[in-house]
Amino acid sequence: MYRVGFPGWKLAVRLNVPLLFRIAVVRDHEAGVFVATSPDLRGLVAEASNTEELFKEVYGCVDMLMAEQLKRPPRSRPVAAWTGEFLPA
C-alpha cells in the first residue's frame, strides 16, 4: 500500500496501487461526538456520535476529497489506518 500524501501518490492512484491514509480521532465528551482528521488527506474532517458512523462519514469525505484533488474519482477507495487510540480533546 502507498500512503496518500507521499510524493507520487497521485501517480499511484492512476496505476491503481492500493492507497492508505492515516486518521486521528478525538473523542469530545462535552459535545458527545467523535471527530476524525487526517494528516495525509488535506481537508478531511468528519464528526459523528459513534465510531461506526464516524467511519461512514470519513469514507464519504474521502470520496469527495479524492475526486476533487484528482479531478476524477479514484478507481478504488483508499484504506483508513487508525491506531484505535483517541487523542485528547
What global shape is seen? elongated
The proportion of strand residues reads 25-35%
Q: Give helix and strand order, one letter per element, not per position.
A: EHEEEEHEE
Any idea what the radius of gyration is?
A: 13 Å
User: What is the CA–CA distance across the termini?
Assistant: 30 Å
What class do helices, strands and sheet pairing give? alpha/beta
Q: Tell me the strand order in the biggest sheet.
A: 5-4-3-7
Range of helix content: 25-40%
Largest sheet: 4 strands, mixed
Number of helices: 2
Task: Explain the layout of strands and helices.
Elements: E1 2-3, H1 9-14, E2 19-22, E3 24-28, E4 33-37, E5 45-48, H2 51-70, E6 79-81, E7 86-87
Parallel strand pairs: 1-2, 2-6, 3-7
Antiparallel strand pairs: 3-4, 4-5
How would you describe this structure to a colleague?
The chain is an alpha/beta fold and 89 residues long. 29% of the residues lie in helices and 28% in strands. The protein has helices spanning 9-14, 51-70, and strands at residues 2-3, 19-22, 24-28, 33-37, 45-48, 79-81, 86-87. A 4-stranded mixed beta sheet has the order 5-4-3-7, with helices on one face. The longest helix is centred in the C-terminal third of the chain and has 20 residues, at 51-70. The termini are far apart. The mean pLDDT is 94.
Descriptive terms for the model:
four-stranded mixed sheet; elongated; 29% helix; 89 residues; three-stranded parallel sheet; 2 helices; alpha/beta
